[in-house]
């Protein structure tokens, strides 16, 4: 079984970063590292940074759990002002239902401002948004 190498691409806009890696739980830490590096440049406190890392981990784990085995997951990070948006996507496993288990739902509710997980046109897509605590803007 051959595995494609991980890739990191940055667009002309340095606030958008895309990470692609094999859709396996052992690689999710890569997305956490990118999230940490990205928000280190923002006005996030340590609690917000850790919340985002935990949420990215949870979101990617959900996408991987619903992904077709042997495929790649793409995680896109975008910064707009002080808001971080994350979109994780992989080819969906056939015939599976998309749902967020109760523990994951509670973790995401506590860690980020919004999140969702959907199946759309053969892909499983997870999204989240995070602003620093106390930021009502």
Describe this protein's structure.
This protein has 137 residues and is an alpha+beta fold. The chain has one domain (7-130): 2-Layer Sandwich (Heat Shock Protein 90), CATH 3.30.565.10. It is built from three helices and six strands; from the N terminus they run E-E-H-H-E-E-H-E-E. Strands 1-2-3-4-6-5 form a six-stranded antiparallel β-sheet, covered by helices on one side. A hairpin with a 5-residue loop joins strand 1 and strand 2. Helix 2 (46-66) runs antiparallel to helix 3 (102-111). It is globular and about 40 Å long. The mean pLDDT is 88.
Descriptive tags:
137 residues, alpha+beta, Heat Shock Protein 90, 6-stranded antiparallel sheet
Fold blueprint:
Blueprint: E1 7-10, E2 16-22, H1 28-39, H2 46-66, E3 72-80, E4 83-91, H3 102-111, E5 114-120, E6 123-130
Antiparallel strand pairs: 1-2, 2-3, 3-4, 4-6, 5-6
Helix pairs in contact: 1-2, 2-3
How is this structure best summarized?
With 137 residues, the chain is α+β, with helices and mostly antiparallel strands. It is built from three helices and six strands, in the order ββααββαββ.
